[in-house]
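#dry-run=false #mode=assembly
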Amino acid sequence: MKSSGPTTSSAPPDASGTVALRLAAPVLLPCDPVCSVIRDGVVDVDADGRIAWVGRESDPGAPAPPAQVRRLDGVLLPGLVNAHCHTPMIVLRGLGGDLPLMRWLTEVMWPAEARLTGEDVRAGMLLGCLELLSAGVTTSVEMYFYADEVSEAVLEAGSRVVLTPGIISAPGWDRLGTWQQMLDGVSARIDSVGLLSGPGDRIELGYGPHAAYTLPTEALTATAAAARERGALLHIHLSETLGEDAALREVHGSVPRLLESLGVFGGRVLAAHAVHLDDEDVAILARHGAAVAHCPGSNAKLAAGIAPVAALRGAGVPVALGTDGPASSDDLDLLRQARLAGQLARLTSLDAAALTAAELLLLATRHGAAAIGRSDIGALEPGRWADLVHLRLDDPAFVGSADDASLLSNLVWAGGGRLVRDVWVAGDQVLSDGRSTRVDRAEALAGARAVAARLRT
Amino acid sequence: MKSSGPTTSSAPPDASGTVALRLAAPVLLPCDPVCSVIRDGVVDVDADGRIAWVGRESDPGAPAPPAQVRRLDGVLLPGLVNAHCHTPMIVLRGLGGDLPLMRWLTEVMWPAEARLTGEDVRAGMLLGCLELLSAGVTTSVEMYFYADEVSEAVLEAGSRVVLTPGIISAPGWDRLGTWQQMLDGVSARIDSVGLLSGPGDRIELGYGPHAAYTLPTEALTATAAAARERGALLHIHLSETLGEDAALREVHGSVPRLLESLGVFGGRVLAAHAVHLDDEDVAILARHGAAVAHCPGSNAKLAAGIAPVAALRGAGVPVALGTDGPASSDDLDLLRQARLAGQLARLTSLDAAALTAAELLLLATRHGAAAIGRSDIGALEPGRWADLVHLRLDDPAFVGSADDASLLSNLVWAGGGRLVRDVWVAGDQVLSDGRSTRVDRAEALAGARAVAARLRT
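#status=ok
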């Protein structure tokens, strides 16, 4: 990515930073570039919620333990990064499950979404945050509407979001204003609260132009200029299905070619899906440092196709994983997406070594964070936010995990989000033994259920 | 299938059969041919462990409730059928996770398996049964060795098995005898205890000739004759990868052609994998009533390919779902396999309506049972065994499930085995709130861990 991520709002710790908490675990996965496995490791967290030290407890260079040491019995790894989602759509989950993308969007989703109020979106986002955290996802990149309500739900649940409010010009959506009003709204929001806000920098703002086929070209150009000017992420659906942009393709060759000609690239660009790309499209993304959010589950269920992940990675395009919205994918278990990414990579290459377990884990953590331009999350390293996930190890999934290769394989191929017990975001424990420490799950479920039921009448 | 399944060992209930238990649930999925959704339904179970009545509690024709009525708050459905597995390999899970089939088999699995004792297999099978039950799988079709120990573990856990002991002639395997001795051993076992045995007919015996490429042709012919004579299932790996049977294919055109020429078909035949089939191969399976165990997860991870499920079903071949052994697939969550089967069906057809949620659920239940020749499990119908699974409904997966289509979609696409709470097999509750009622999970885990650790030294 040409531009780096947002400047952090609080300074990284210096040598004198106070360590508030040490977490010790029999298995630590720091998600460093080689995906090390640390046995009997510790993570020290400072009073600001950032990681102060990571290593083996027995390391002679380990700092003296702080007053508070918590001994865990499972696997400790960084919080997962879901790079493409529309979480509030949880209230629409299950509707139109057997339709292709354009019919599903125009006949089922958009009419239903037209009935959503801000309070409905808040209810969906709140329950969705609990589901994300329960699957070990601490950060999600969200393209949705009602930014106030989405942000409030994130802060209530204690998770982390890159919120790129939707900008769209399509039938029915003018109830929320013109694309220009939507764009100006996002810019005004960023100019008012900054790119990063909230405790532990929990909210990052960016721009969510929906897609080239739902916006006039001048909207794409203007949005890109506004995003670049502010160093903000531009998050857009790109080349998801063959049908959606057939008209654009006929005129411009492809959507990446069109976007390049419009000057959309050059800043921080995250292209969701990126299924139907030719070699030149891949080269365009690579030369502009654009990243891709690979959403294999959604692309499979909607029969869109399989993104050329090997070609993208080979060309140097940063690739992250996304679940897409729960109305299409349908759950928010990112490790399940990692597994599917591995399965599809092997099927398309007929190479059983394509995307190893270690590579898949890094896609869900370190590489995912890098793809969205964030070097302050996605790995257990001093200075990064202490976004941590603790998975149970006393499960048949991990029965043979004495060697590191088996442990990583078992985590990705046999384990998954169902094993998550505890989650911390910026050092705050937000999930404890599977339960939110902040939100009454039954109330959140009831709130979202009421919305879902109303949308079905 | 030309031959019907095994004759049941206990008579189906007559009108005077005593109803021992009624289970009532807000959602009942009987897995009838149209995949009905019954709201506020009940299942009556007789004293033998068979289903006596199924329907709406408010139905005027409903029998009077028995003394014991248990009110559940989730979804009640039939126990799932895993049509191809090698469950004891759970102790090998994670080994060689990035190798193609033949290297994985010959370099990693077979040498490790050569070190397994009967007690090791029992330990693996016991933990595996707990994992299967925890994912809602009540019946698994197992190809493995040490039949005594596998059976004992199944009876201890209380699950149900179709046990087809392996028959193989490949390097290293002669430690267990010649193929003829293995074959004779299975025949003697069936002749001694019968096709069905154990409480609730929990054990069905069949034959497990490993594959055409690991057995001489006379072994295939002899095994098929023995199986046909006894009405037993013949369970064989078929056309899994392009490489495994290249030599056979060169001579015989394909393995199905070879098996047909050897007279292997005609009885109850279950072909696992069946990935690389041409039209004539599909026609051969169809005209002999052979069934296929589709194992999409294993085929993906090992880069084998995608079975032509649509062509098989179109030709009338019964298709079931299998996880394959936990060393290749890697978990035993059959609903996850169902989801993957749907994803791959949609990707290969580019049709977002290929394999609906209802069809996928039936593959894991009713159709799976039919494919292995069993009409006494796989659905909630009077006379079938009361193999039942209770899934939690108070989960974000089901947030919008007031309409039946959403409910089925949510079960398959967002739910899955992680939601299983209670399981009954032949009317006995074997899992209660996620815990085995019969086996100490920590002990089973420790036993399998010890084996797994030894195999890694």
